[in-house]
């Protein structure tokens, strides 16, 4: 094992990375809070400042993927569409099978210069996750409760607010609504069967309402849908803990640009269009599993140094005072102070472990796990 690999495997390195992420994240969250009065003076200035502050947080995770773990992210796409990426607003539709799929998405956002402004239709629970969830409030991220009756108005309103957004953004939609598990897959295929829809092998049945409401509300704002299919080579099952341990993965992303005008306006037709899209996505996954390739040329944008520079900046800023504090602590010789500091560090590392747990599929929600009869019963009871 090389020296660098040894360093990457050390618990102390992970502790320091998490310390920098957590402390810088909370400082940035506080700075974001301070920008609230700017909203009253100029909404656009508030947005531009928060795009940059958010970049300081999310690019640290991108740097961990690109520079610490050295994960390779390859893009397969039509060379004619390539110049448009990053230069227009778009709705991104992505499969939801991997614990770090959102991070690979962020990596492409970084490479096309839209990381700070990237958006997602996120489950409400994520709004309470410190640093990332709190950062999202200031980015006008759209949250949903995954209950159409409660979401239809708030989601439409959130999307309408993006009409005058001052910088290009990608709006990510995981139409499957939850991460792929064999049980969720089996149940969603029962739903597909009962609706007379074709079965999917690699995806859950997409939820169509969020897609329809997004397309309708972003007409005139977004130029296209980027149909994106992500996979990892050699059946890798990447995790955030793996990234922290410096494990290198190989992500392959296939993107098709579909102009928004091609998507039907009528709700039922739009739903049928999305089901057809997922059948095509399933075929691409099948091709990938057979050949290890997608039906498009590789046009990978290179990684940029900015995420690394930002990460080094925060590390220097925060590790130096930490070193001084530790030196003082040891020289003080006070057992009570040392004990309190160890307890605080343990609590913080448990907190970060809980945050990482949010990305783990085996700790995922029960959404999509219930039979239709159970859902109907629950809905009737709540009425
Ligand atoms: C060039 C490079 C290109 C691309 C780069 C890639 C990406 C980069 C882009 C941006 C990055 C930005 C940010 C990334 C960072 C972080 C993201 C992290 C995480 C957030 C992700 C999430 O939180 S996912 C969960 C939340 N999101 C969603 O759920 C979206 C999808 N859901 C919907 O759209 C839903 O419709 C809804 C949420 C709006 C409403 O939910 P509800 O449950 O009420 O759904 P429906 O009304 O649709 O469902 C009821 C109908 O469904 C049938 N049913 C019942 N059981 C099932 C089942 N198991 N499967 C399928 N369908 C089922 C039921 O019968 C109902 O049928 P009807 O006939 O009555 O409609
Ligand atoms: C610089 C490196 C720092 C390492 C430490 C990182 C600590 C921060 C860790 C995580 C921050 C939280 C990111 C939240 C993104 C979670 C994305 C996600 O995949 O959500 C799942 C959701 O779609 C569906 O949920 P379910 O499948 O229904 O359940």
From TrEMBL:
State where the protein is found: Endoplasmic reticulum membrane
Question: Membrane spanning segments where?
Answer: 12-41, 311-330, 336-356
Question: What UniProt keywords apply to this chain's record, in alphabetical order?
Answer: Acyltransferase, Endoplasmic reticulum, Lipid biosynthesis, Lipid metabolism, Membrane, Phospholipid biosynthesis, Phospholipid metabolism, Transferase, Transmembrane, Transmembrane helix
Q: Which GO terms describe its molecular function?
A: 1-acylglycerol-3-phosphate O-acyltransferase activity
Annotated Phospholipid/glycerol acyltransferase domain residues: 90-212
Q: Give the record's pathway.
A: Lipid metabolism; Phospholipid metabolism; CDP-diacylglycerol biosynthesis; CDP-diacylglycerol from sn-glycerol 3-phosphate: step 2/3
Output the InterPro entries linked to this UniProt entry. Acyltransf_C, Plipid/glycerol_acylTrfase
The UniProt record lists the EC number as 2.3.1.51
For this protein, the record's SMART domains field holds:
PlsC
Give GO BP annotations, semicolon-separated. Answer: phospholipid biosynthetic process
Task: Tell me where the signal peptide lies.
Answer: none
Q: What does it catalyze?
A: a 1-acyl-sn-glycero-3-phosphate + an acyl-CoA = a 1,2-diacyl-sn-glycero-3-phosphate + CoA; (4Z,7Z,10Z,13Z,16Z,19Z)-docosahexaenoyl-CoA + 1-hexadecanoyl-sn-glycero-3-phosphate = 1-hexadecanoyl-2-(4Z,7Z,10Z,13Z,16Z,19Z-docosahexaenoyl)-sn-glycero-3-phosphate + CoA; (4Z,7Z,10Z,13Z,16Z,19Z)-docosahexaenoyl-CoA + 1-(9Z-octadecenoyl)-sn-glycero-3-phosphate = 1-(9Z-octadecenoyl)-2-(4Z,7Z,10Z,13Z,16Z,19Z-docosahexaenoyl)-sn-glycero-3-phosphate + CoA; 1-octadecanoyl-sn-glycero-3-phosphate + (4Z,7Z,10Z,13Z,16Z,19Z)-docosahexaenoyl-CoA = 1-octadecanoyl-2-(4Z,7Z,10Z,13Z,16Z,19Z-docosahexaenoyl)-sn-glycero-3-phosphate + CoA
Per the entry, what this protein does is: Converts 1-acyl-sn-glycerol-3-phosphate (lysophosphatidic acid or LPA) into 1,2-diacyl-sn-glycerol-3-phosphate (phosphatidic acid or PA) by incorporating an acyl moiety at the sn-2 position of the glycerol backbone. Exhibits high acyl-CoA specificity for polyunsaturated fatty acyl-CoA, especially docosahexaenoyl-CoA (22:6-CoA, DHA-CoA).
Q: What is this protein called?
A: 1-acyl-sn-glycerol-3-phosphate acyltransferase delta
What organism is the protein native to? Answer: Anabas testudineus
